UniProtKB/TrEMBL annotation, chain A:
<dbReference type="InterPro" id="IPR022642">
    <property type="entry name" value="CheR_C"/>
</dbReference>
<protein>
    <recommendedName>
        <fullName>protein-glutamate O-methyltransferase</fullName>
        <ecNumber>2.1.1.80</ecNumber>
    </recommendedName>
</protein>
<dbReference type="Pfam" id="PF03705">
    <property type="entry name" value="CheR_N"/>
</dbReference>
<dbReference type="InterPro" id="IPR036804">
    <property type="entry name" value="CheR_N_sf"/>
</dbReference>
<keyword id="KW-0808">Transferase</keyword>
<keyword id="KW-0489">Methyltransferase</keyword>
<dbReference type="InterPro" id="IPR022641">
    <property type="entry name" value="CheR_N"/>
</dbReference>
<dbReference type="GO" id="GO:0032259">
    <property type="term" value="P:methylation"/>
</dbReference>
<dbReference type="InterPro" id="IPR029063">
    <property type="entry name" value="SAM-dependent_MTases_sf"/>
</dbReference>
UniProtKB/TrEMBL annotation, chain B:
<feature type="modified residue" description="4-aspartylphosphate">
    <location>
        <position position="55"/>
    </location>
</feature>
<protein>
    <submittedName>
        <fullName>Two-component system response regulator</fullName>
    </submittedName>
</protein>
<feature type="domain" description="Response regulatory">
    <location>
        <begin position="6"/>
        <end position="122"/>
    </location>
</feature>
<dbReference type="GO" id="GO:0000160">
    <property type="term" value="P:phosphorelay signal transduction system"/>
</dbReference>
<dbReference type="InterPro" id="IPR011006">
    <property type="entry name" value="CheY-like_superfamily"/>
</dbReference>
<dbReference type="InterPro" id="IPR001789">
    <property type="entry name" value="Sig_transdc_resp-reg_receiver"/>
</dbReference>
<keyword id="KW-0597">Phosphoprotein</keyword>
<dbReference type="InterPro" id="IPR050595">
    <property type="entry name" value="Bact_response_regulator"/>
</dbReference>
<dbReference type="Pfam" id="PF00072">
    <property type="entry name" value="Response_reg"/>
</dbReference>
């Protein structure tokens, strides 16, 4: 692939998803786009780059962006945020008026493991007044999250077997989340770079391991947009390798909790 | 220095035992092997391991028989017993959990699955995940 082709595919992905592909990611383009080239009968990456310059190649551009921005996921990924969530949710519920529905946003939900992990935490805590909103850039993964069907491999990543038999049912070799868990979550295609005001306020937001792909100004912009949707005493969870330092003034770390952030103006309450 | 954690790998396939051993040794486990439930029971009587990784279908004494015998003889908590078997039916998993297994791996497994389960069981630090 020539440098111009790489740059034009990277520019397309950046414009559509905010994700920055550095030249060392060329191998990733090769492995993830190979099936698309084959399916579309495109001879190589240079030919693909040319096809994508045509404004009518909307469907192709979308497929390429999705292929380059989807990531593997596991249940209860990284453990610690969910331990914190278990302690946080009863406190938040106690601070809300009776009948308030806790709202939790899984803001890069991928195939739904994070959203359903949150649902299991809520069930284990016996909290019924709650709703989970999962969003992702990729239509394909949002469809999968909505289905709530996982392979044998996927249900063995991060999910204790006791939770598997409690919350999933076997269905022709795969595992489907129970209607109860499924009913707690809804999923929608959404670009993190978009406007989120219409979504309303969330008590908790998970946005993990996606900002690492953005450049610093975009990181700051997304974090500010998420902070704007967060309840005054709410918590935003970022990935272990992500930070707010130097990127936004609106969020500060929760003392002693790696990856958990609260609103700066509310620091005294954390 | 802390004594290394011990794991008994019970499987009638030498290939599977070797694959599991390689992953467990990377996490500094001291690994021993048994080819069936009877051998495993004798091994436990000689020295109780921290963890038993247990196949289900084996000659002489199968995994479920071993599980029941081990729970009767050594109690409900020790050793930690994790099934690792091609038996992937819902009812089989429930049966094993009912008989006192702490975890369950459906074959085929890989490093990510086994290591993840070891983390869940608190036998390996979270940072060790591949």
């Amino acid at each position: 692939m020539n440098a111009d082709s790489f740059a034009s595919i990277a520019a397309l992905v950046k414009a559509r998803s905010g994700i920055v592909l550095t030249p060392d990611k060329e191998y990733m383009l090769d492995t993830r786009l190979a099936p698309i080239l084959k399916q579309e009968g495109i001879v190589n990456m240079d030919a693909l780059a040319i096809r994508l310059r045509d404004a009518r190649a909307e469907a192709l551009a979308r497929t390429v962006t999705e292929a380059l921005t989807t990531n593997e996921s596991s249940f209860f990924r990284d453990g610690k945020p969910f331990e914190h969530l278990k302690r946080l949710l009863p406190k938040l519920q106690g601070a809300r008026p009776p009948g308030h529905r806790l709202r939790i946003w899984s803001a890069a939900c991928s195939t739904g493991q994070e959203a359903y992990s949150i649902a299991m935490v809520l069930r284990e805590l016996g909290i019924k007044d709650a709703e989970i909103f999962g969003s992702d850039l990729s239509r394909e993964v949002v469809d999968r999250a909505r289905d709530g069907v996982f392979t044998q491999f996927e249900v063995q990543r991060g999910l204790p077997v006791q939770m598997l038999v409690k919350y999933f049912r076997q269905e022709s070799g795969k595992w489907r989340v129970s209607p109860d868990l499924r009913g707690m979550a809804r999923f929608e295609e959404r670009n993190l770079l978009g406007d989120h005001k219409a979504l309303g306020r969330f008590d908790v937001i998970f946005c993990r391991n996606v900002l690492i792909y953005f450049d610093p100004p975009t990181k700051g912009k997304v974090m500010n947009a998420l902070a704007a949707q967060l309840a005054p005493d709410g918590v935003l969870y970022l990935g272990g390798a992500e930070t707010v330092l130097g990127l936004t003034e609106r969020l500060v770390p929760v003392t002693g909790e790696r990856g958990a952030y609260g609103l700066a103006e509310n620091r005294s309450l954390l | 220095m802390e004594a290394p954690q011990t794991c008994l790998v019970v499987d009638d396939s030498r290939v599977v035992r070797k694959a599991a051993r390689r992953i467990l040794e990377r996490h500094a486990f001291q690994v021993s092997e048994a080819e069936d439930g009877q051998q495993a029971l004798e091994s436990c009587r000689a020295s109780l391991p921290k963890l038993v990784l247990l196949d289900w279908n084996m000659p002489v004494m199968d995994g479920l028989e071993f599980l029941k015998a081990a729970r009767a003889e050594f109690g409900p908590d020790e050793p930690v017993i994790m099934l690792c078997t091609t038996e992937s039916e819902f009812d089989r998993i429930v049966t094993a959990l009912g008989a006192g297994a702490q975890e369950y791996i459906m074959k085929p497994f890989d490093d990510a699955i086994l290591t993840g389960k070891l983390v869940q069981l608190g036998l390996v630090a979270e940072e060790a995940e591949p």
